[in-house]
């Protein structure tokens, strides 16, 4: 890990909180934002400075002071990226800032009918949330180009980890084994996201774009089947996609099928994934429960 500094995370959600705790344990000063007053209190009790933030409620001037590394994990809204809009100029004027990471999504590539994409593949978003992500990426890269912000873009695959995985879905009875021909999803364990961000901080290349996905794109039913096997229960019955009666949001995830290459994080950043497939990742989820 690079020499300790001050990390600021816009959006202390699932990924942001894992990253913040890892850096706090390494001796960094850590701060960030959360919309929940209760969560801000919990984070403060752990030593993480926590602030409220949204488009209508900017941060106080002192919140960003001394930040050396910034992660933006706040989703864009209809008007664009709120962090870039409200605090882009403040970040560009921050003399201490050495690195900024924007967390985007592999959804920007759209549907590739199961084909492979890498960071040189042109974006082709086909749902509104992915279109907003493309505009947010463009806003941050424009700040890099026009104001010298040290921006790095990370396109994340589907995130999972303890408390948010096929293990939890099967155990709760919410899991569905929906079968759609030629459908594949890409995934990434939350701890591997933190590892990739750390590696980029150690080898910064402003303007770079990185796919953050594991080594094995897989059909959506396979992690459900593996979770059931690990738990020693029968998997839920297979249901054809056409008969699944999914919500519009759930169905939208089945619109896109693609395989995401992750060579750049390995070749350029030297990353070795701790959880190269969902199998290792799901075993870790169970192990983490035992540790807790």
At a glance:
The protein is an alpha/beta fold and 292 residues long.
Describe this structure in words.
- Keywords: NAD.
- This is Nucleoside-diphosphate-sugar epimerase.
- It comes from Caenispirillum bisanense.
- InterPro entries: Epimerase_deHydtase, NAD(P)-bd_dom_sf.
- There is one protein chain.
- The chain is α/β, with parallel strands linked by helices and 292 residues long.
- It has a domain of 194 residues: Rossmann fold (3-Layer(aba) Sandwich).
- 37% of the residues lie in helices and 17% in strands.
- It has ten helices and 13 strands.
- The protein has a seven-stranded parallel β-sheet with strand order 3-2-1-4-5-7-11, sandwiched between helices.
- Strand 2, helix 2 and strand 3 form a beta-alpha-beta unit.
- Helix 5 crosses helix 7 and helix 7 runs parallel beside helix 10.
- The two termini are 26 Å apart.
- The model has no long low-confidence stretch (mean pLDDT 95).
SSE blueprint:
Blueprint: E1 6-10, H1 14-25, E2 29-33, H2 37-45, E3 49-51, E4 69-72, H3 82-92, E5 99-105, E6 116-117, H4 128-147, E7 151-156, E8 158-160, H5 166-172, E9 177-179, E10 187-189, H6 190-202, E11 209-212, H7 221-231, E12 238-240, H8 248-253, E13 259-260, H9 263-267, H10 278-291
Parallel strand pairs: 1-2, 1-4, 2-3, 4-5, 5-7, 6-13, 7-11, 8-10, 9-12
CATH topology of the domain at 6-160 and 190-213 and 259-273: Rossmann fold
Q: Name the CATH architecture of the domain at 6-160 and 190-213 and 259-273.
A: 3-Layer(aba) Sandwich
Share of residues in strands: 15-25%
Oligomer: single chain
CATH superfamily of the domain at 6-160 and 190-213 and 259-273, by name, is NAD(P)-binding Rossmann-like Domain
Mean pLDDT, rounded to whole units? 95
In which order are the strands of the major sheet placed? 3-2-1-4-5-7-11
How much helix is in the residues? 25-40%
Provide the gyration radius in Å: 19 Å
> Strand count, sense and closure of the main sheet?
7 strands, parallel
CATH C-level of the domain at 6-160 and 190-213 and 259-273: Alpha Beta
State the distance separating the first and last CA atoms.
26 Å
* SSE-based structural type: alpha/beta
Q: Figure out the total of helices.
A: 10
**Which term fits the overall shape?**
globular
SSE succession: EHEHEEHEEHEEHEEHEHEHEHH
User: Low-confidence parts, pLDDT < 50 over ≥5 residues?
Assistant: none
The total beta strand count reads 13
């Amino acid at each position: 890990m690079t020499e300790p500094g001050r990390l600021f995370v816009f959006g202390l959600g699932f990924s942001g909180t894992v990253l913040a705790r890892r850096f706090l344990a390494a001796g960094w000063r850590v701060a960030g934002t959360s919309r929940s007053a209760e969560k801000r209190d919990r984070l403060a009790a752990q030593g993480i400075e926590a602030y409220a933030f949204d488009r209508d409620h900017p941060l106080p001037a002192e919140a960003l002071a001394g930040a050396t590394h910034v992660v933006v994990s706040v989703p864009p809204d209809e008007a664009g990226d709120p962090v870039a809009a409200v605090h882009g100029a403040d970040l560009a004027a921050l003399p201490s800032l050495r690195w900024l990471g924007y967390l985007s999504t592999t959804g920007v590539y759209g549907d590739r009918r199961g084909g492979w994409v890498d960071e040189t593949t042109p974006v082709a978003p086909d749902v509104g949330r992915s279109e907003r992500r493309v505009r947010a990426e463009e806003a941050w890269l424009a700040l890099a180009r026009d104001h010298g912000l040290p921006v790095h873009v990370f396109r994340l695959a589907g995130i999972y980890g303890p408390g948010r995985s096929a293990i939890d879905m099967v155990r709760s009875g919410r899991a569905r084994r929906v079968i759609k021909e030629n459908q594949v999803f890409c995934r990434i364990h939350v701890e591997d996201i933190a590892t990739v961000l750390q590696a980029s901080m150690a080898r910064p290349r402003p303007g770079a774009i990185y796919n953050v996905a594991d080594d094995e794109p897989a059909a959506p039913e396979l992690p459900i089947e593996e979770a059931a096997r690990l738990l020693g229960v029968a998997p839920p019955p297979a249901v054809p996609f056409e008969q699944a009666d999914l919500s519009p949001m759930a169905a939208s995830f089945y619109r896109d099928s693609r395989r995401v290459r992750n060579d750049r994080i390995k070749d350029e950043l030297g990353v070795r994934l701790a959880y190269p497939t969902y199998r290792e990742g799901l075993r870790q989820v169970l192990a983490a429960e035992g540790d807790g």
